[in-house]
Design a protein that fits this description.
Layout: H1 3-8, H2 10-17, H3 19-37, E1 44-48, H4 54-62, E2 67-72, H5 75-84, E3 93-97, E4 110-116, H6 125-135, E5 136-147, H7 155-166, H8 176-181, H9 187-196, E6 200-212, H10 217-226, H11 235-245, E7 249-250, E8 253-266
Parallel strand pairs: 1-2, 1-4, 2-3, 4-5
Antiparallel strand pairs: 5-8, 6-8, 7-8
The structure holds S-adenosylmethionine.
């Protein structure tokens, strides 16, 4: 199954069915993303891989006199985004189905592109970020989150790996989505891709936060199991999985520490005579 098929199939359907779960999981990273994005009241924002649109609506709250377009390749997720977005409350929000790598953005028509984990899945990342750069005005901004490399002893990785092994599955099994998910996990690669796409002032900053997987261990196991359609799990396995998550229970839920990169960059400014004030420069990790 290709990445686009997965986001239009079981994976996208699961995200569309559980927006609150995924939003709770990513909640600790929203502050760093929006601090980095520094959205102004009149900004024209594009949210790349907007999913069910929480960050699109958050951006719209910060840009009441601007406009925000959420772009996503997944029909089920965009349908969910539309159903969750009150047109009267968010008249400045529109959603668009498309591959951000190739869809025709209004050239230079945006001040800012943001993404909460929607930019790792491109078939050709340099082409995709070149397309996104073309959507931004000179001096436009880019701010996105992407996962850090999975550390074998990282809390989230260890706990999810244990759940997978109790199910008799190898958590490290490669598939197209898992491979794509890690495609920007090395900062040197981020610099290389964004530099080749014409961005400047590229910064990659690590942020850690607790990701919430459920209100308690049993609830988190239920959610974990539901991610594989049709999976049947015996009571004893379910009990073992619940036991594995008990140490992570807290009053706020089952919390697993994880890390992302906050990436920011700009498109080059233009001088009064229309020339770029930055020369495209070689990648410096
Ligand atoms: C990890 S989810 C994040 C969704 C959303 N940003 C959020 O935080 O809830 C990745 C999103 O990127 C979208 N996506 C994947 N490839 C894409 C592409 N080439 N163009 C646009 N969206 C894409 C997926 O459909 C999915 O909604």
């Amino acid at each position: 199954m290709t990445v686009a098929e997965a986001w239009n199939g079981p994976l996208g359907q699961h995200w569309a069915a559980h927006p609150d779960r995924y939003n709770a999981m990513l909640d600790g990273f929203d502050g760093p993303l929006f601090d980095a994005a520094a959205i102004g009241a009149r900004d024209r924002v594009v949210d790349i891989g907007c999913g069910s649109g929480l960050t699109t609506r958050m951006a719209a709250r910060q840009a009441p006199d601007g406009r925000v377009i959420g772009v996503d390749i997944s029909e089920p997720l965009l349908a969910r985004a539309r159903s969750l977005t009150d047109a009267e409350q968010f008249p400045q929000v529109t959603y668009r189905l498309g591959d951000a790598q190739s869809c025709a953005f209004e050239p230079g028509g945006h001040d800012l592109a943001i993404s909460r984990g929607g930019v790792m899945f491109f078939a050709d990342p340099v082409a995709a970020f070149t397309n996104i750069a073309g959507a931004l005005r000179p001096g436009g901004r880019l701010a996105f989150l992407c996962p850090q490399p999975a550390q074998p002893d990282g809390e989230e990785r260890k706990a999810l790996g244990l759940l997978a092994s109790l199910l008799g599955r190898d958590h490290t099994t490669e598939n197209a989505v898992a491979t794509a998910m890690a495609s920007l996990s090395e900062p040197a690669r981020v610099h290389q891709v964004l530099g080749a796409a014409g961005f400047v002032d590229i910064e990659v900053t690590g942020v850690s936060a607790d990701t919430c997987w459920g209100k308690d261990a049993a609830d988190a196991v239920e959610f974990f199991v539901s991610r594989t359609p049709g999976l049947s799990v015996s009571d004893s396995t379910r009990a073992a999985m619940t036991g594995a998550l008990l140490p992570h229970e807290s009053p706020s839920g089952v919390m697993l520490r994880a890390g992302v990169w906050v990436v920011t960059a700009h498109t080059p400014q233009r001088t009064a005579d229309g020339r770029c004030s930055y020369q495209r420069r070689p990648h410096t990790p």
